Amino acid sequence: MDTTAPQMARELGVSLPTVHRALDALGVPHPGRGHTRRIPDGASERLLAAHGSAPQHETPASELRVLAALSRAPLGLPSARSVAVQGGLSPTTATRALRALEARRLVTRVPSEIASGRAKRELRWKTDTAVWPEELRRAVRRTRLPRPQEAARAPLPRSLRHLFWNADASKLTPEADGSYMAGRLLEAPDIRAWRWALANISPTDIQTAMSRRGVNPRTKALVENWSHHD
User: Fold this and answer.
1) Distance CA 222, CA 209 (A)
2) What is the pLDDT of residues 68-106, one digit of tens each?
3) Residue 160 to residue 158: CA distance in whole angstroms
4) Please, what's the b/e burial string for 214-223 (b: 16 or more CB within 10 A of its CB; e: otherwise)?
5) The HTH marR-type domain covers which part of the protein (predicted)?
6) Which domains does the chain have, with CATH numbers?
């Protein structure tokens, strides 16, 4: 059954003009003034995948998106802008949602120690799903975040090459050495290593690395939480 443009705007939590612009880009016909624009199922699915959606709930859609983004980021997120990117929101909307959720004690900014050559502390937005009411937990579980944009795989940064002390790190590639690289990077006490591995190494190679004996259970939990984000 086709969806109307106003229905899609409510489901995405965006304005009607934003939906019309997205439909124009997809080539969905506009019936003209005075007629409701209808969206075929295929186009609806593409919009939902690209922009995300949130269920009807007493908590605003923008706040559900923020909670979904933070619940799928076990290391937390460093800024309102990064929350906005993950949640498919504008920075202004994400900032407003974070403040509202902070007032409800559903999110907090906590200092985290980041290993990046030398130890550094930074404030990161985090949430504790254990304190959520069950109804909210169900709503966040049904919240759909935007599909990540495909990006070219980046080369291994020089700052991470020391993790491969017994190999020629300049010749390692995710395509040929993915599981080996994942094992070293995800077990390292360096958030940059985790981010690079999760962004550039295939899920299959990551799972292969995690299935080996001796992997820290916390590392396995990190990967499991990240997989829910996808």
Assistant:
1) 13
2) 999 988 778 888 998 998 888 888 999 999 999 999 999
3) 5
4) eeeeebeebb
5) 60-113
6) 3-51 (no CATH), 61-141 (1.10.10.10), 158-229 (no CATH)
